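Case study B.
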Amino acid sequence: MIARTWMPALMALAGAAAAAMPSAAQTPPTSLALSCAACHGTDGKSPGSIPTLDGRSVKEMKEALTGFKNGTRQSTVMNRMAKAYTDQEIAALAEYFSKMK
Amino acid sequence: MNRITRRSFTAMAGAAGAALAMPNLAFGAAARVAVVGGGFGGATAARYLKRLDKQLDVTLIEPSRKFVTCPFSNLVLGGLRDMNSITHGYEGLAKGGVRVVHATVQGVDPTAKRLSLSTGTPVNYDKLILSPGMDLNFGALPGYDRAAADRLPHAWKAGSQTLLLKRQIEAMPNGGTVIMVCPDNPYRCPPGPYERASMIAHYLKSKKPKSKILMFDAKESFSKQGLFQEGWKEVYGNMIEWLPGKAGGKVLSVDAKAMTVKTEFGDHKGAVINVIPPQRAGEIARAAGFANDAGWCPVEFDSFQSKMNPDVHVIGDASIAGQMPKSGFSANSQAKVAAIAIILGLSGKKPPSPALANTCYSLVAPKYGISVANVYRVTDKGLVSVEGGVSPAGAPAAVRGREATYAEGWYASITQDMFG
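Model:
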């Protein structure tokens, strides 16, 4: 059950974020990943023409997002969006969606 | 109608501080979150509150039993979609554990933390999310009041107004002029008027090719302007004419009886006149004292907590969200930030630094899509776009085609994300 697993993760990460300096605030993976749903579907399960994200391997997701970010892989929207995320955040997103089944 | 006085506001701010130290979960009762407005912001907030913490007691209050999306309502005008395909119900949210109440909120009592409803049964809350959208500011443009909207549709809230505009366009003669009156910033859906012109042109091109679309704009420039104008020329020739504010675009008044709009350059007659008037936050947010003098609601960007009241979060069109546009996607993204902040806040924790997103697809023609996409973060300059931009200019047809396909995919995803 997703709801069960999200809460502790949210709490732990928010704790870490609150402890950090405001200027170095980190965005936890859940918070990052929820934005993806508007195009890629809730939990990355896309009901339409946009690629799904759920259950993809960490390696595949990291390669795709890094490629979009560096411009070595062509897309429509993702070339513009991926630049906004640090390598660390990309790794965290890859980890997050790999666990969505 | 309860209003926040300065005194009650100060008292409230103090009480909220105490509540953080002494959580209201003391006796194991579920915290109550009320969400007002069942659109892109409110429906998403209600669904995600429940998904993130199923113990929460979440009530969504929305007068309509069916929600017609503004996104894709332009496609109805173009004949690409029917109303049924952009109409959604709340059954999925109810199934997900959200208590859905179909009623109008008549007042907010921020001291008692209670909403009064048209049903007569009040709703008590620990935290409140207001997502009332925007209200058309009738009277701000001389000649444009509620009655005028029956002849000069705005169609900026989707539903019967969309159908009225569609019927008028279908009934007008070949060779008639469709006039569009476009507002100054800020307003709901910055690229919307220009997608609308595109979709009307798509219809006219095959059915009434001698007709024209004349756009009077209060602004000097608009969202995805280069891309729209490139597409218009390519697909519709000179059918769409756009007049910026200083070149005669500024409309001084409209006349519903004479079917004219007045500018500094004189009166212009339209066979159909679509007026998109100035806007402000939905009435309940203004009446409850959560808006500023300009009519929009200031919020903290890491939580969308109202600057006027710590127990209230304002999301979507009604909020002042830095550089984020007033769009369904923005509201969906903000809803999740507010949901996370509320859940953490109920345990006395601060919200994390958020990363918000927005993508607005527009259709220039059925297989011709363009987009603007940005990621927003909180910096010392406010809530700003850190990366993003628009589709490339001069892109091949295959790219435009793919973005048109993705626009459809986006619609399928976001409506499922809102309603389950």
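Chain B has a mean pLDDT of 94. The remaining cases will be described in the next quarterly update.
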